[in-house]
């Protein structure tokens, strides 16, 4: 079941104006860089992007914001992106801010066929407005619904020809749940190996969740907050 | 004298107990990791998907694939593990993390906290804060007692959009350690050299002051 | 002549399409894996946590840690993966599995299925069947047309406790291939040498019979 | 954070009559054999056991049934155990049969602080009796609640002193979710290694979910359905 495509253009074929995309990553960590560059090149507009962050002004999803390709962002934290904040405060950009854990769980729910679940997060805040509240174990919870996307675009460390994926360190973050929740899921990987190479015990995302896979040409992997201690 | 950020972190570190898993928010809370009391072992969780965080990497050894929730480059200790964001918040929501330390713009006397939005001015998003405050049994807020304009941030009621309701149990500021219970702040300790009168003056919320308020012991 | 179990499996295997992920239930469905048409590639999922099942192991090479949902020892193919039961049912409930084949005690003309319990007599439990039938878009039931007493199991309404409601799309028995739509069974094919009259006689539910009912082609 | 205990007796200390236990495994695959033997020896009674299966008559949880130690079983499939069926049909044993996917998800929910979720499984069947029904995407779903346990007992292949676990092949099954859902979780492992030995990318159950860990003395690993093809 070979799912390999040659390049980002073939991988992202079918994405058109107005679609909903999930994009993996946390800040600039574990983002599908090559696919984002391709989205910029394709010039698709009016996208709804579900992604924990919005990148920085000149990298990650920030590039789509710069090009005014995004109609709506669904995120938990956008603090590192001035252009985002500007577009949001001016009303150019629709923004749905969601608690990070609810965002992760809503993506997983979307992939797992769970249409809704109760969580305590956000009770008593703006996030709960219009949502059903119910007590469990003496504590109020709100009902949150599943999220899905026309396309999910994720970044993995290693992948095989069947679409099995392994992530590295904290570059895993939202990628596995988003891979589950895309109607079509596209994976870009640093290393692409034949099926049978990866240990079946150690697959993070089973290939069933991935429809297309390609080897990214180049990964810049920018660091947002370089923090170090001096070598003695 | 009022504490600096490191002093606040040092005082909060005294609350750590052996065997705890701890989530530290961005800012002052991050500094708590530098002051773990001797003889106890704790593990730090970061909600972007790591358990067992170590110190910052040596210069030149940063790994862009290894960051904390503040997007800072980090290292891991022996016994660390990586996991996805859903599993990470399963740990938090499922109350497997024993202590959460986070910053705040405002705290109210019924334990409400606001730390994610100033309408029309600043909208960074709540990140994981709403999940953390809604789930953690044990939340300590690390914050300054007043804002830059000198107005108290220890309030009867929050004025900013809330992050969570009735969840904060303890507040440590540059001036004081306060417990929140029964709808009031209870003054437990004052910073070395800080007078009870100063704390009273800078606290807008109802403050219960005992006859004797010990100084923090930061040695 | 009525088909044997392998014949039923062989006919169902013709429904497979290239690139599909398929879940095979216990019994006749398991045999489907032996008849994958040439030139197509499918992957078998088992709900206890494996994708990419291969044939049974060679004698002496069984691994007790590697079984299918029928508790049979199995092997895996290149590209296989293991996962926990929650993830496995995420695949099923989330409709990532394109075809589910399972056995039944009764099927009704509105697509209800009963296959887990005979009150007071037999209670094995539903296992994963309720999740499978409630979620799969494409369910084929492999079963015998009648029970041992000669009573039809292709019914107007199920008499046994249900496993799922209105979910079965296609039934393959030793006598016939039937589609379920608009509250009726539609006879699509008959087993080689089996008469339409025999099928009508052994079907209690409403059966729509076209003028010409082709024989199954099992070569 | 050393969680190692020396033997099953120390690992299971604190389990008393009337408690609710989760026990990992699927059939006889991936079950905590040494802990089950210890439960038999302890003679604790009136247990509520949450486990996908009930073992066979003379192995796995079947041993607890034989000793009449179990008051109630919460399972999805009990087909391979005659004593179970006898006790259930005679009314000696309370049984709550749950769809396997709902059982897995309810354990995960218990561990993840999700008190309830909607699933389509079981709608229109006995399982849905008394449960709230709601339509999502034009399809009826039922509300299922989280499961937790006083103790969860799981079996892993490798574990380290911090409680991190790695499972082998399909012996993983329910173990990871049950590890999440126990107030106290006990892991028995085939191989116990020092912290730092296992690759942090490859941990299936992070140590935060495990309170006690021990190396099992002996694993019989019975096979329920030995199926083979002849060597040519």
Describe the structure.
The complex is a heterotetramer, with two copies of chain A (232 residues) and two copies of chain B (219 residues). Helix content of chain A is 21%, strand content 27%. Chain A has six helices and eleven strands. In chain A, helix 5 runs parallel beside helix 6. Chain A starts with 7 loop residues before the first helix and ends in a 17-residue tail after the last strand. Chain B is α/β, with parallel strands linked by helices and 219 residues long. The longest helix of chain B is centred in the first third of the chain and has 9 residues, at 5-13. Chain B starts with a helix and ends in an 11-residue tail after the last strand. The mean pLDDT of chain B is 95. Classes of the chains: A alpha/beta (232), B alpha/beta (219). Chains A and B meet through helix 4, helix 5 and helix 6 of A and helix 3, strand 9 and helix 4 of B.
Question: Summed up, what is this model?
Answer:
The complex is a heterotetramer, with two copies of chain A (232 residues) and two copies of chain B (219 residues). By secondary structure, chain A is α/β, with parallel strands linked by helices.
